[in-house]
Write a structure and sequence with these properties.
The protein has 113 residues and is mainly alpha-helical. The protein is 57% helix and 5% strand. The chain is built from three helices and two strands, in the order βααβα.
Length: 113
């Protein structure tokens, strides 16, 4: 939406640079394990996402990897809102996906057949 720009990528590009796409993919594959403790705590997940997401982007800004638009003073608020909603939703989607996975059974569970 124009609130932040990644260093070294053309304005208006559909995706971020490969390193941020890889980070998002790595994060998505680890949600079930790393954020399992938030399953029964959606409000804590929202707070964690709002604060942690913002801090991550601010760290990226200090490293020179991302810059916030000076014309958009609400970029930090938008990031807090997006990550505050995303974390509880992602945790619940991970729990739902885990419930869909078939459970491994041992030969003891099936009567030794």
């Amino acid at each position: 939406m124009g609130g932040l720009t990644y260093t070294g990528i053309a304005p208006g590009a559909l995706f971020g640079p490969i390193w941020i796409v890889a980070l998002w993919m790595a994060f998505a594959t680890s949600v079930d394990v790393s954020l399992r403790w938030l399953r029964q705590r959606p409000m804590l997940g929202a707070a964690f996402g709002a604060v942690g997401g913002n801090l991550a982007y601010q760290a990226g800004q200090k490293l020179g990897a991302v810059s916030f638009s000076p014309m958009d003073p609400h970029a930090a608020l938008a990031l807090a809102l997006v990550w505050g909603v995303a974390i509880p939703v992602l945790v619940q989607v991970a729990a739902w996906c885990e419930d869909l996975r078939p459970r491994a059974t041992s030969s003891l569970d099936t009567g030794g057949a």
